[in-house]
Structures are given as structure tokens and as C-alpha cells.
Write a structure and sequence with these properties.
The protein is of the alpha+beta class and 604 residues long. The chain has 21 helices and 19 strands. It has four domains: 81 residues, GIY-YIG endonuclease, CATH 3.40.1440.10; 117 residues, Nucleotidyltransferase, domain 5; 178 residues, UvrC, RNAse H endonuclease domain (Nucleotidyltransferase, domain 5, 2-Layer Sandwich), CATH 3.30.420; 56 residues, 5' to 3' exonuclease, C-terminal subdomain (DNA polymerase, domain 1). The strands form four sheets. Strands 12, 13, 14, 15, 16, 17, 18 and 19 form an eight-stranded mixed beta sheet that branches. β4 and β5 form a beta hairpin. The longest helix has 29 residues.
Length: 604
């Protein structure tokens, strides 16, 4: 029996609430919330809907609604129902395990740092975290045991030791089980480790420096050397964790999307320290906009699962219900919670790091072998090839107003990007900004090696840039008489949006039309984006190499004292060159502005 939408809508309340769409077996298809139920539900039965939403609506046999007092209450109820019912058309985060913690007992004279999946008892010790993954906990524990030599054995093993174990031999434990270290000294090391896990590693470094200097003054050089080694290890850890010295509790959400795939990364920062990240690949069955999709993920992350709520939630896109979500989080956590996508300073660095993680996860997803096989098969059908293409090559040009022109050649096979075959071509002897001549030079150099048998010929040669570059590629193939290569040009559409590119097969007079959801188009977009990225990387390297002629002596504001402090802090000029802007500001006497000057001068 079909669902009578008109009759149903005639009696629906205009109040805020939650609705459940059910199929004929009374299974939930979708759960949603609305500020005005009548208007929201009516939108499903009039106007233009995308194909996936139409498919869902066609399966509706009944709709159940729950009226709430406010939109905030509706949001909380919606996420509770999503977690309980797991509707197929909702965004679902599969990983719902509780966060792990580091636990330090106060009931043992020589406590260990222990891994705990959740808080088990109150008042029996200190819980540090939560961490976003077990890997983040184990990495932190390994670092602390390496630096402070904290025991990692069980209490039952500790109680029955008569001689030091292997951990002592490899300098990962100070052997408190056989009294090789006094209880106060061991407790001091535990306290220092806890302070580091709480994001206070810089303060620990200062304390250890004072102890090292005191040991040196009393001629206790062995102890001074041990403390020096601890300080150096802490410095290395601080360089890896560039947010250690910044304050703040935040979760950072970043969404990356490419044709046919999307990824979301969630970074957790507590007490200014980056604890780690989680990654999700949710399905977007209703073709939601990136903003709406990220809104759904953030809502379910906090209201559908028992995650701790930080003081700040940072996203890389504006949320559709940002104010509403902030109010609901504040109600749940009992404190003010800020939800924002516009950040500066170290919060912008967190945001950028989350976006980098999301892009990386997305790249991994796109490299999936099964998905690649489907895309290559689709490309074979689209191009009318007799067999599956084995090797794709794509060329692109990059320069800055004609400076340091570089061409890129990236290669894809059935395993994805074949980075060992990537090549850069330094373009010389052409007019500045002449992309056609640059493309001609790069293709000529590449295809001459193919003709001579020195290099493997591609099955499909893709040229980024449109009709002019395609015609130039056709001329090179004709002049060199290289047969058997299918030529494909990629020109951006008038709006320059992904999915609206114009493809040309063999010549500019033969456009190739592919649907936006075509796996073949997704493969072409993927290799085109990779060639663009690789070309820009090569251009920047060439440009920066030409510009980078300065050393510390040539930087304004860097005198002998500051130069000495920089070299001492990083162990030499190479360490200064590798340092980030944030790491440079940790050096005494180096301001943020001066750190920026140093970084730009040494790194272009």
C-alpha cells in the first residue's frame, strides 16, 4: 500500500520534533530532526529531489513523528534514535568504542603507567586522556618509558622479581623492583611523565635543566649526563608535537571530498597537546552538501556516542546548525562550548593538520584496488578500447608568471599512482608563460625516449589544459610518429567545478561526455589532480632553490647572540632549517615575527 503523503501532511504539527521514516516491514529508513516538522516533511514530497532521495521516498510506508519542546531537544533525540536504529540512509560512524586512557595508581609505592579502555573506579588514581585511539596511548607510554624509565610490568611480576629484567638492560626501566632507585627518585620520574602527558613538557624541560646544572655544579657529571639525555629526548618529542605549548581543549573535524569519495578526520587536543586522530569514511547516500554532511557527523559524534565534550569544536566548513549544536553541547557538558570554523594562530594549525589527515585518508581510499579496477574498466568502455589500459600518463605545467616553469608527468596503473615513474621536466628556452611551448617541450622529451625504446609507452596520454594543449600533444605524436597512444584532453568547465570538466578524445573536435558519477571521469579527475599537485611541488622546489641563498648571518635581526642560541637549541644550521615556525619561537629571544622571517628566508 502506497503512502498517502497528502493526508499525512494535513495533520502534521508545525512544532519542532523528530521524524522516523519506515518501510513496509516497519524498519527505519531515515531519522531526521526539524525546526518545523510540517515544512521539513513536505519538502520530501514536492519539488526536485535527487535520485537517491527519490529512491528512499519511494520505500516509505509510514512516518512517525515525536514533537519536542525545542530544536535542541530534537537534535539530542535524533542522535539517540540514530544510534539505536542505525537507519541505512543516515550518516553512520562505525567506530563507537570508548576512548582509552592512561592510568596512574596512587596505591603502589612504585606506580606504573597503565593502559585503560575506560575509567573503572573513582578515587584510586589519576586518569589521563581521553586519547583518540589505542595507538596514541601506546605511543605515549613508549615515549614516557623511554625518557623516564617507568616500569611497565604487572604488579604480580614486580612483587616477585629478584633481579632486573630485560627492560632495565635496554634502559627502559630503572629497576625499582630490586631497589636500584629510591622511592622518592622514582616518584619524581613518574610525576615528570604525568606532567608531560598533561601537556606540560616545557615545564618539565626547565626543571630537568635546573637539576642538570645543579648536578654539574656539584661535579656529579654522570647524573648531569643522564639529565642531559632526558632533555634532548624531550626536545625531540616537542618538535614532533608542535602544539605542546599551546593551551586549549578542542576537537577538530575536517571533511575532504573528491568525486566518488569522501573522508573525515577528527583530531583531539587536550591541555594543548595533540593526542591523535580518528578517521571515518561515511556514506553519503542522500548526496548531502559538504556542510550538511559535516553537521550530521558532528551531531552524531557527540550525541549518538559517549564522547567527552571539549571547550571548543573546530571544523573546516561552516555547520548548518552551528549555534544549535553549540547550545546542545553546552547543555550536555554543563559548560560553554564554542563551535567555529574561523580560527587563527595555533588553532588554524590544528585545523590545517586535520585537513591534511582527511586528504591523506581520502587518497588511501581512492587507491583501493577494487575501486581502481572498476574505474579502469569504466575508462576502457568510455574510450572504446579493445582491452583494459595498463598505463596512464598525465602532463601538466606550473609556473609563477613565467618563473621556474616545470612540467609534471604522473603515472597510474592498476595499483594506483606509480610514484617511482613520476617525472619533473625543467622547461628552458621558451617564452615566459607560453604553456603551449612548455607542453610541447615536455612531451617531446618524454616521447623521444618512448620512440627510441628507452621508456615504456602509455596506453592513454592525458593532457591537462584544454584544446590548445591537446592540439600541441597531437602535433608532437604526429611529428615523432609514435603510434598506439590514445590521447585525452581535460579542460575545466566554465564554472571550474569538479564533475563539470570537458573531455576531448584524440582531437578538440571530438568531445567526450561522461556522467558526473562516472568512475571513468573520477579516474581522470584523480590523475589530473595528482599531476597538478606534482607540478606545483616541482615548481615551488625549483623557485625556492633559486631564491634560497641566505644563511643566518644575512637575516635582519639575527646577531651573534641569537645565532648562537639558534644553533645551540637545534644542534646546528641543518636543525634550524628543518624547524617549523612554532619550533623557532621556542628559542629564547626569537619572537613570532622574527621566527617567520627566519623560516621564510631559509625555506623560501
Amino acid at each position: 500500500m502506497s503512502f498517502d503523503a497528502k493526508q499525512f501532511l494535513s495533520s502534521v504539527s508545525a512544532s519542532p520534533g523528530v521524524y522516523k521514516m519506515l518501510d513496509e516491514q516497519q524498519n527505519a529508513l531515515y531519522v531526521g530532526k526539524a525546526k518545523r516538522l510540517k515544512s521539513r516533511l513536505a519538502s520530501y514530497f514536492r519539488g526536485q529531489l535527487n535520485a537517491k532521495t527519490q529512491a528512499m521516498v519511494s520505500r516509505i510506508a509510514d512516518i512517525q513523528i515525536t514533537v519536542t519542546r525545542s530544536e535542541t531537544e530534537a537534535l539530542l533525540l535524533e542522535q539517540t534514535l540514530i544510534k539505536e536504529l542505525r537507519p541505512p540512509y543516515n550518516i553512520l560512524l562505525r567506530d563507537d568504542k570508548s576512548y582509552p586512557f592512561v592510568f596512574v595508581t596512587d596505591r603502589h609505592p612504585y606506580p606504573a603507567l597503565e593502559y585503560k579502555r575506560a575509567r573503572q573506579r573513582r578515587g584510586d588514581g589519576k586518569y589521563l586522556g581521553p586519547y583518540p585511539s589505542s595507538g596514541a596511548v601506546r605511543e605515549s607510554l613508549t615515549l614516557m618509558q623511554k625518557i623516564f624509565r617507568i616500569r611497565n610490568c604487572e604488579d604480580s611480576v614486580f612483587a616477585h622479581r629478584s633481579r632486573p629484567c630485560l627492560q632495565y638492560q635496554i634502559e627502559r626501566c630503572s629497576a625499582p623492583c630490586v631497589d636500584y632507585i629510591s622511592q622518592p627518585e622514582y616518584q619524581r620520574d613518574v610525576d615528570h611523565a604525568v606532567m608531560c602527558l598533561e601537556g606540560k613538557s616545557e615545564h618539565v624541560t626547565q626543571l630537568l635543566t635546573e637539576e642538570m646544572e645543579a648536578a654539574s655544579r656539584t661535579l656529579n657529571f654522570e647524573e648531569a649526563a643522564r639529565l642531559r639525555d632526558q632533555i634532548q629526548q624531550l626536545r625531540q618529542m616537542q618538535q614532533r608535537q608542535f602544539v605542546d605549548n599551546e593551551s586549549g581543549d578542542a576537537d577538530i573535524f575536517a571533511l575532504a571530498q573528491r568525486p566518488g569519495a569522501l573522508g573525515i578526520s577528527i583530531l583531539s587536543v587536550r591541555d594543548g597537546r595533540l593526542l591523535g586522530a580518528r578517521h571515518h569514511m561515511p556514506k553519503n547516500d542522500l548526496d548531502l552538501s559538504p556542510e550538511a554532511l559535516l553537521t550530521e557527523v558532528v551531531s552524531q559524534y557527540y550525541f549518538g556516542q559517549p564522547h567527552s565534550v571539549p571547550s571548543e569544536v573546530i571544523t573546516n566548513l561552516p555547520l548548518e546548525d552551528g549555534t544549535l549544536i553549540a547550545d546542545a553541547l553546552a547543555q550536555q557538558a554543563g559548560k560553554k562550548v564554542r563551535v567555529t570554523h574561523q580560527v587563527r594562530g595555533h588553532r588554524a594549525q590544528w585545523q590545517h593538520l586535520a585537513m591534511t589527515n582527511a586528504e591523506q585518508q581520502l587518497a588511501s581510499q581512492l587507491a583501493n584496488t577494487t575501486q581502481l579496477t572498476e574505474r579502469f574498466t569504466s575508462l576502457q568502455q568510455a574510450l572504446g578500447l579493445p582491452s583494459l589500459p595498463e598505463r596512464l600518463e598525465c602532463f601538466d605545467i606550473s609556473h609563477s608568471q613565467g618563473e621556474a616553469t616545470v612540467a609534471s608527468c604522473v603515472v597510474f596503473d592498476h595499483q594506483g599512482p606509480r610514484k617511482s615513474d613520476y617525472r619533473h621536466f625543467r622547461i628552458e628556452g621558451v617564452a615566459a608563460g607560453d604553456d603551449y611551448a612548455a607542453m610541447q617541450q615536455a612531451l617531446t622529451r618524454r616521447l623521444k625516449r618512448v620512440k627510441s625504446g628507452e621508456a615504456i609507452a602509455p596506453d592513454v596520454l592525458i593532457v591537462d589544459g584544454g584544446k590548445g594543449q591537446l592540439n600541441m600533444a597531437r602535433q608532437v605524436l604526429t611529428d615523432l610518429q609514435v603510434p598506439g597512444i590514445v590521447l585525452l584532453g581535460v579542460a575545466k568547465g566554465t564554472t571550474r567545478k569538479a564533475g563539470l570538466e570537458t573531455l576531448f578524445l584524440e582531437s578538440s573536435d571530438n568531445p567526450l561526455v561522461l556522467a558526473p558519477a562516472s568512475p571513468a571521469l573520477h579516474l581522470v579527475q584523480h590523475i589530473r589532480d595528482e599531476s597538478h599537485r606534482f607540478a606545483i611541488a616541482g615548481h615551488r622546489a625549483a623557485r625556492d632553490k633559486a631564491r634560497r641563498t641566505s644563511t643566518l648571518q644575512d637575516i635582519p635581526g639575527i646577531g651573534p647572540k641569537r645565532r648562537r642560541e639558534l644553533l645551540k637549541f637545534f644542534g646546528g644550521l641543518q636543525g634550524v632549517q628543518k624547524a617549523s615556525r612554532d619550533e623557532l619561537t621556542r628559542v629564547p629571544g626569537i619572537s613570532a615575527a622574527l621566527a617567520e622571517t627566519i623560516y621564510v628566508t631559509l625555506n623560501g
